[in-house]
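Structure request: Urate hydroxylase PuuD, Phenylobacterium montanum.
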Amino acid sequence: MAALLQNFRNTIIVSVILGLLMVAGYYVHRTSDAAFWQAVFRWMHVFFGILWIGLLYYFNFVQIRVMPAIPAELKPAVSKHIAPEALFWFRWAALATWVMGVILAIDRGYLLQAVTLGLSETPASVPHGMIGIGMWLATIMFLNVWAVIWPNQKRALGIVEADADAKAKAARIAMLASRINTLLSIPMLAAMTMNQTLFG
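Returned structure:
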């Protein structure tokens, strides 16, 4: 068991297999094919969302706050090795979370109502407006990852050539954009979790 757990790739492979066995178990007891696929999309949406927001919180709760206290000779360990790897999983998890969320909204039949915040509907459709707010917040966050954070982090980390001033400016822009995502994340999570609990 220790040999398995010491290898990250093998640990993830076994975890995915166990997850798929759970999915297969639910397939046997499904109430309908539509409900089953909605459950699969929700599972994937939540998994990728945890990976995305978990890394967002790692950057903001830990890395950004602690970096100034790290001795200069140790900073390259973070900026050259840890941060690029974390940003890889961060940006692709953001994309996968957003895609799975859109697929789930289409499959559940409320994408248009959510995107328009339920404004064209009756007061009974408040749930669509509330989940729509969460979806718009998540969309802003997703676009922020790909259009602002990642391009600036590439300059700040030296993945793309830039002079010292450009690197410092890019690091500040990336940090502020990341803080915007942190700010939006808590209301977005409230919309996602409360909507599901209260309205199904």
